[in-house]
Structures are given as structure tokens and as C-alpha cells.
Design a protein that fits this description.
single chain, 363 residues, binds 4'-deoxy-4'-aminopyridoxal-5'-phosphate
Length: 363
């Protein structure tokens, strides 16, 4: 069979062809600390409860179009109305729908760098103009003053900020989210790691009731603190008007009945999440102290469930040497401002001990 010339070339849009793919190195390891997952699995009795509920449902029938059960449960837990909440297949999906709603050709999109790589990709696909604002990750902060300087110089700015920030671990200071909103920009606030932070803002789910703002969309996930990464559940909160617009863009039925049931059960057992968050935050402090005591290792302050640190050897060598010892972490040294850096998720006490022991050996 001959293939027409035309068929061997991709007709992908130039903006996509020019991009690099979001990739993850697939590696087996006994101890997996590379994706900021929870080290604590969802309790078996709660899994059984979810599966019993899912078993009783009709699998030949689409899920509830409005996902009323989960949106209602999230709204109740956060002092919101269901009109203020949209749910979907991980916060990645919510980010994609929201970025397509608010960012179009020419929209200036301001974000700290380094940060979660997906923002720039989605903004670029939408035709937005990325305006990365580089900052020093060792400070544990985000470059709010620099962002505030840029906002008045561009029209209809959209700011995307992740706090605590992945992959640096730093966070916004108290009142800084409000300052960004006061600047007149549209703010997309990713609080995937918000449960682990010490300084929540009134716009976070931990505030009761959670505050809304007409120029703010807040993204949350069940993948980290809630321990449901495999089930892919994320949600956003905003004004009813914004939610109505984003809903036009979002794919229908993106959340399946099993994942929705699991998130509802998780919300009913907030005590499980709280206990896990407490353990992770305590382990984070222990890990940072222990890592700081290792010569040739310097840690960045972290408000998240991971710690980014700098070594004096090539990060790749440390990554490989840890992998040989059965420990998988993330080499983040190719991010701007993160040369010689790696990121380790906070694991269980036993996993963290193994990691610390291995790190002492390899650096
Ligand atoms: N935002 C940030 C900052 C993340 O680190 C991640 C996951 N790595 C996500 C969003 C996506 O989370 P999920 O789609 O699992 O909800």
C-alpha cells in the first residue's frame, strides 16, 4: 500500500506541533514518591461502601447530567450553593474547560515560573500569550509584586497561580490572593495542595463559608489530600455566572458514577482526610529537618505534600542512584531556576525513612 504524501504529514495546528508533550517517565519502584499522591490508600471499608453503591446502580444508563449528588455534597461542605460548583474528571479537566472559557487568541496569561506545566500548554493551545514571571524558588514565596507590575501594562489579563506551588512548594502570603483580585485581573487559583498549607485564604475550601469573587475560579482535587488519584475527581468553585459559562465548554458526563460515589463518601468521612493531612504535614516537617542535616542537600520551604531540594551533583545522577535503591522521585532539574533540583513527595513514615537513608548514601 502506498501512503499519499499528505497522509504522512500531520495536519496538527502549528501551535500544537511546536509544543512538547506533557510526559511522565514510567518506572517501576518499590517506593513511589514521584507524583505527590497520598501515601495512604482509601480505607477498605469505604471502598466497599462505594462499590456496593455503584453495584446497585444501572451501568447501562448515563450518570446524572448535573452530578447533583457530588456538587451538592461539595457545596454543603464549603458553605456554597451547587450553582457555584462544577465537577469533572480531575482538576486537569476543570482547568482545561476554564482556560478555554476565559482565554482566547491574544489573551495575556500571566503565571509564575516554575509552576505546573499544564497551564502554559492549555493557554497556548487556546491562543493565549503566555507571560511567565520567573522567581527564586528558594524563598518559599510567589512573585506577586512582579505579577502586579505587569497586570496594568496588558489588557484583560488572566493570572494563573498555584498555591502551594508545584513544583517549588512555596505559597501565597496572607492577603496576596485578594491583592491579585483587587488588581482587576481574572484569577485562576489552583489549590490542588491547599489542604497541606498553613495559611489558607478566605477563598479556599477550608474557610467556612468559602468566599467567591466574580473574577476568581478556584480549582480543587480529590487526588492529593483525599487519596483518590486513581478515580480522577476534581472540582471548581466560582460565581453562578462563571459556572454557567464554563459549563458550556465542559464535556458532559465526564465524571463516572463510581468516582462520583467515592468522592461523596470521602466528603462524609472528612475525619479520614484530616487525619491523613495531619500525618503528612508532620512527616513533611520531619523530612525537611532530616534532609537539612544532610551535607550537600538544601531544601526549599514547602507548604505542600512534597519537598523540592537542591543537590551538588547532577540531579539525574541522584535520581538514578535513588532508583537503583528502589525509590522513585521526580527530577525537576529541567525546569527554569531548578537546576540541580529534585522533588520528593512526602510518603508514609517508613517510606520517608527509606528515602532519607538512600539520600544520605547517594549525595
Ligand atoms: N494542579 C496541580 C498543581 C497539580 O500538581 C496536579 C496534579 N499533579 C493537578 C492540578 C491535576 O490534578 P488532578 O487532575 O489529578 O485533579
Amino acid at each position: 500500500m502506498t501512503v499519499a504524501d499528505d497522509a504522512v504529514k500531520t495536519r496538527a495546528r502549528a501551535v500544537v506541533a511546536a509544543m512538547t508533550a506533557y510526559t511522565l517517565e514510567l518506572r517501576e519502584a518499590a517506593i513511589k514518591l514521584n507524583q505527590n499522591e497520598s501515601p495512604f490508600d482509601f480505607p477498605i471499608e469505604l471502598k466497599d461502601q462505594v462499590l456496593a453503591e455503584a453495584r446497585a446502580r444501572h451501568w447501562n444508563i448515563y450518570p446524572d447530567f448535573e452530578a447533583i449528588a457530588l456538587r451538592g455534597a461539595i457545596a454543603r461542605a464549603n458553605g456554597l450553593s451547587p450553582d457555584n460548583v462544577l465537577v469533572g474528571n480531575g482538576s486537569n479537566e476543570m482547568l482545561a474547560s476554564t482556560i478555554s472559557t476565559f482565554i482566547g487568541p491574544g489573551t495575556p496569561v500571566i503565571f509564575p515560573r516554575p509552576t505546573f506545566a499544564l497551564y502554559e500548554k492549555l493557554a497556548t493551545v487556546a491562543g493565549g500569550v503566555p507571560i511567565p514571571v520567573e522567581f527564586d524558588p528558594a524563598t518559599g514565596t510567589l512573585p506577586v509584586a512582579d505579577i502586579l507590575r505587569i497586570i496594568p501594562a496588558v489588557e484583560n489579563a488572566v493570572v494563573i497561580v498555584c498555591s502551594p506551588n508545584n513544583p517549588t512548594g512555596g505559597s501565597l502570603g496572607s492577603g496576596q490572593l485578594q491583592t491579585l483580585l483587587d488588581s482587576g485581573a481574572m484569577v485562576l487559583f489552583d489549590r490542588a495542595y491547599g489542604e497541606f498549607a498553613e495559611t489558607p485564604s478566605p477563598y479556599e475550601p477550608s474557610a467556612a463559608p468559602m468566599q467567591l469573587h466574580p473574577r476568581l475560579v478556584t480549582f480543587s482535587t480529590f487526588s492529593k489530600a483525599w487519596g483518590l488519584a486513581a478515580l480522577r475527581v476534581g472540582w471548581l468553585a466560582s460565581t453562578a455566572e462563571n459556572c454557567r459559562e464554563i459549563r458550556k465548554v465542559k464535556l458532559p458526563y465526564s465524571l463516572n458514577i463510581i468516582s462520583e460515589a467515592a468522592a461523596v463518601v470521602a466528603l462524609e468521612r472528612r475525619d479520614v482526610r484530616d487525619a491523613n493531612v495531619q500525618r503528612i504535614v508532620a512527616e513533611r516537617a520531619r523530612l525537611i529537618a532530616a534532609m537539612a542535616a544532610i551535607p550537600r542537600v538544601s531544601t526549599f520551604p514547602s507548604q505542600a505534600n512534597f519537598i523540592t531540594f537542591r543537590v551538588e551533583k547532577k540531579a539525574r545522577e541522584v535520581f538514578e542512584a535513588l532508583h537503583e535503591r528502589g525509590i522513585l522521585i521526580r527530577d525537576v532539574s529541567s525546569y527554569p531556576r531548578l537546576a540541580y533540583c529534585l522533588r520528593v513527595s512526602v510518603g508514609s513514615p517508613a517510606q520517608n525513612d527509606r528515602f532519607l537513608q538512600a539520600l544520605r548514601e547517594v549525595v
